[in-house]
Structures are given as C-alpha cells and as structure tokens.
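Re: the 374-residue chain
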Amino acid sequence: MLASSKIPVALVQPLIGDEEIEAVVRVMKSGQLAQGPEVAAFEAELAAALGVKHAVAVNSGTAAIHCALEAFGVGEGDEVLTTPFTFAATATPVLMQHARVRFVDIDPKTFNVDTETYARHVTKKTKAVIGVDLFGLPYARTAVADLEKRNVRVLEDACQAIGATRDGVSSGKGSAAGAFSFYATKNLMMGEGGALTTDDDTIAASARRFRQHGQGERYEYISLGYNYRLTDVLAAIGRVQLSRMLAVTAARRSNAAFYDASLAELPGVTVPMIPTGVEHAYHQYSILIDETKTRNGADRNVVRASLAEAGVATGVYYPTPLHLNPLFAAGHSAGDFPVAERTARQILALPIHPNLTDEMRAHVVASLRTATGA
C-alpha cells in the first residue's frame, strides 16, 4: 500500500464545543470566578466517576503531585522512587520537597515500572514511590499493600490516564493517592488544571490546606502552603468534558484498535502492548521504530520526517530520559537506565485524538508503511 496524497493530520485536537463556551459564559456572568461552587461540583462529579472518596481540585497535575508528597510527609533526607521515562513534573515536586529522586528502569514492553520492581529497590531512606500510568496505561499495583506495610507511601501519577482501568480499578484509585492533569492536550482538558484523588481523609485534608496557603479556617495559617487553587471557569469546562469522557475514551480506543490491526505485522514497528486486565486510556498511541528491522533501515527520526512530509504530525514522548537532563543529571550518566534510553531513541506517538476520520487513520498507516520501506 502506498501513501496517498498529503492529508493534514494533527497530533492533538482538543474537543471544545458550544457546551464548554456556554459553561464559561455562565460562570463569568455569575461573578464567582475563584474556587467556588463549580469547583466543588467538579470535585464531587470526578470522585463519583473514579469511585474515590475525595477529589481535590488544583491548578495542575504538578500541583496534585506536590500536594500528595506533602501529605505523605516527604522532606529533606528522604528519597522517592520513580521512573526516568516520564514528564519532568513527575519528579520535580520531589525536589520541591527537598528530597532525592531515585530512578528505576522501565519495562521494555509497557514503558512503566510496576510496584513489585519498586519494592525491590526500597531502602531505609525511601519515603514514597510514584508509579506512572504512562500514555494512559495503568502501572501494575500488585505490591502496593506490601510497600505500605513498609511505611512507603504510593502515589499514582495518573496525569495521562483518566478513563483507564486495571483489573476493574480506575486509575487514581489503587494507591494512597492519585494525581491527574487536565492540561490542554489531555483526554479531559480545561487548558490547565489537576486533581488529587484519595480515599484517605487525612491526605485529602492536607491537600485542601496545601492548595490554599496552608489555611485551616479562613486566615488561620497552619502550615506552609501554596496558591494551587482551581478557578470556577476552568472547573465549569471540566464538568462538561467529564460528561463526555466515556465517548472520548471509546473513540480513542477505536482508533488504537485500527492501528493495532493495521500495523501489527509491519517490520520494524512495535505497537503498544496491553497487559491482561487493562483498559487503556490512549492519551498517546506510542510505537517503537527499530531501524535494524525496518525494510529501508529508517530510524525514528527519519520515519518522523517522512510522516511530516505526508502531513502527519507526530510526537516524541520523551526524547531524553530524566536522568540525562541537567536538572537530574548529578550522579547519573548514559547507560544507567538502558531500557529507558533505548525507548527514548525509538518512541514515536501517532495521532489518536477522537476527531480522526477513517481517511485520516488510513493515511497515517499508509504514510508509515511508506516511511519504513514497506
């Protein structure tokens, strides 16, 4: 099959309709713009959708992770285990708490680190673990109870995984706390925004203080906190987005199934592996390009350039593992986490958003076949 003529295919395309616009106008007319009734309604609706006791809305996924680490008591002298193959905001809140980030290499098939692997790396200084649901695939939580017995708190970075489940449990529910992002490109988007989820009353109370300058009662400052509040304008958008999450997730899964079937036998291309019991959210559909197996010897960068020529936008998440970035490089060098490093060289995200048409999907596949010499 040869690629057809150039057809523009965007990598991401947020779904914004009249309902979101009307919700924003309603809030603007109400005069209540800061954290208020829309935020409270969004928190209740999100908690119900995920099956958790508490959802604490904040202004970003980064803030949600920071709130969780503060609630866990992470501080100077502690270490937090996480993956080097993730967005920086998984790890930067650890530094904000003056603790040390310690990385654990990823699984080559899922790109995640499961809790059993984390458990093998725990030391006396380990205060917490941040498991990442990368690209919308929930990490394996089988050792969460064991880690908690060892006084190691577990945070699920579900910032890319709203709508995903593992063994029937929603992302953001299977550990002490979960963190979500509602950035402009996320499956549920507000432009900016986030939430901490938990069944633990103490963690929820801590997060609510931490997001509002450490206040208990109004003007009663109990502990250090930040301005991590969410606005009612953004929460109103989020409520509309949440109402259509099932349809959005179903569309992403349909697009992924098309790619799976079309690319499964393409030499040099590895499609995402989905473990048994997982319902993927497909924030990204990330394939691996192995230049030793593509028919024309094309590597990821060559394939990406070819797709761009055909009008197909792609993404690289992430081009450099965290341990090779200057912020985290102290004590690390190339080769420390070989699976993460190899994956970073081969990873390529294809368009997966719900606005893809049949023609667009077919064009992506045909263009990829051409780019890899098939």
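Residues 18-243 form a domain with the Aspartate Aminotransferase; domain 2 fold (CATH 3.40.640.10).
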